[in-house]
Amino acid sequence: MTAPMPCPCCGQSLPIDETLRIDEAGFVVRNGRFARLNPAEAAIFGKLRERAGRIVSKETLHSALYLLEPESEIKIVDVHICKLRKKLTPIGLPIETVWGTGYRFLPITKEIT
Predict the structure, then answer these.
(1) For residue 99, pLDDT beyond 60
(2) Contacting residues for 72 by C-beta, under 8 A, at least 6 apart
(3) Which residues does UniProt call coiled coil (predicted)?
(4) How far apart are CA 81 and CA 60, in angstroms?
(5) CA gap 108, 113 in Å, rounded
(6) For 39-53, what is each residue's pLDDT tens digit?
(7) For the structural domain made of 20-102, what CATH number should be given?
(8) How many CB atoms lie within 10 A of CB 73?
(9) Where does the pLDDT of residue 35 fall: very low under 50, low under 70, confident under 90, or very high at 90 and above?
């Protein structure tokens, strides 16, 4: 495991544990590492977290974006998932594609919001 990153807000060391922390500003912290999510990514990840371990359809994820991107096509979900994976996989938060159905967030055991 790499050394923990400093907090982007205060500069203190981030906690090194398996707990998932998410704040209102869109920061996701796990194992001393963090990722910053934009509002659309946070909306999609929030929907995936609500149904952790279960398949979430593209349509459901697209509806989570409606207030943020009302004119968007459903294909935008794939774009946001790609960006989410680049940010979340390195901190141990994988999102799985379930071909022809949707996506699934593979949960961890501890979570703090």
Answers:
(1) yes
(2) 62, 65
(3) none
(4) 13
(5) 13
(6) 999 999 999 999 999
(7) 1.10.10.10
(8) 9
(9) very high
